What we know:
Layout: H1 5-17, H2 21-28, H3 32-40, H4 46-56, H5 60-65, H6 89-133
Helix pairs in contact: 1-2, 1-3, 2-3
Amino acid sequence: MNETIHDRIGALVQEYGNGKNTVFANKIGVSEGNIRGYIKGIMPKADVLEKIVRILDVNAMWLLTGIGHMRVSNLDINAPVLVSDNDKLAPVLQQFDVFIQKKDAQIVQQAEEIGRLRERIAQMQQRFEKNATNANTDTIANVG
């Protein structure tokens, strides 16, 4: 079936290129040799995947994972996606979880740095105010 991205690209060639690599390649603006390679096991680069998704209105989740419908127009945006509905989704969600955890750690570090910078600014303002208060204001300018 469509177990790998290579299988799914083959299915796209059938669907959008009438089974012909050349027709499909022309539609997305790549060489026929590249399409042949992708079907045989070469991993397509991100720009090619983006072309497939944008030009043909293909569901990116389906293309990358096999989850869902091939066409974006067949998506039901109101239907919930449950991990129990599809075992393939669990690894994808785990990758997102790792990504989110890394971003959370960055946010915590940045928040701590912001706190240190605010404290430093407050200390500098206090010093400035202290220096301004202690400034000699007894000198009167002579005009004249």
